[in-house]
Amino acid sequence: MELGQSSELNDEGGGAEEEQQQLEDWFPLGDLPQDCLVRILSQLMPRYVCRVALVSWAFSRVSRLDAIWEHLLPPQYQAILAQAYGGPPQFSSKRELYDCLCQQILLKDGNEVAFHPLLC
Helix, strand, or coil here: 84? Predict the structure, then answer.
């Protein structure tokens, strides 16, 4: 089946899941080496990392790696955490840390800091 025929599947009740499976059969992203996928996702803005995670299970798995989110954190994130919490708080992943930094954080001196909302 050709890729261009996917719209016919939706008309026949095949659904988006079947269409995605056929796309993965046509171009199996899971066959790409993980380090290649990491390099691809590391070039994207955070919101696009989340969107591309919906494309395939391979992108979804790689999008949760700390290597992706470490690259997206600002260089001064450890200083921000030290000012806000008095030390590094425990996060289960770099993605969780990134999500935390996207929120307004009250620093000890009374100032607030957050990432630009368009990047989160």
Answer: helix
